[in-house]
Amino acid sequence: MELREARPPGRILQAYTDEVTATTIKFRIVGPANDGGLPITAFVAQYKEEADTWDQYEVKSWATDQAEYVIEDLLPLKRYNFRFAAENHVGLGEWSQEKVEIMPSRAAPEKPILHVETFHGVAHTPYSNNYELRWVVPPDNGERIEAFEISYTPVCFLPFI
Question: What is the SS3 string spanning the chain?
Answer without folding.
Answer: CCCCCCCCCCCCCEEEEEEECCCCEEEEEECCCCCCCCCCCEEEEEEEECCCCHHHCEEEEEECCCCCEEECCCCCCCEEEEEEEEECCCCECCCCCCEEEECCCCCCCCCCEEECCEECCEECCCCCCCCCCEEECCCCCCCCCCCCCCCCCCCCCCCCC
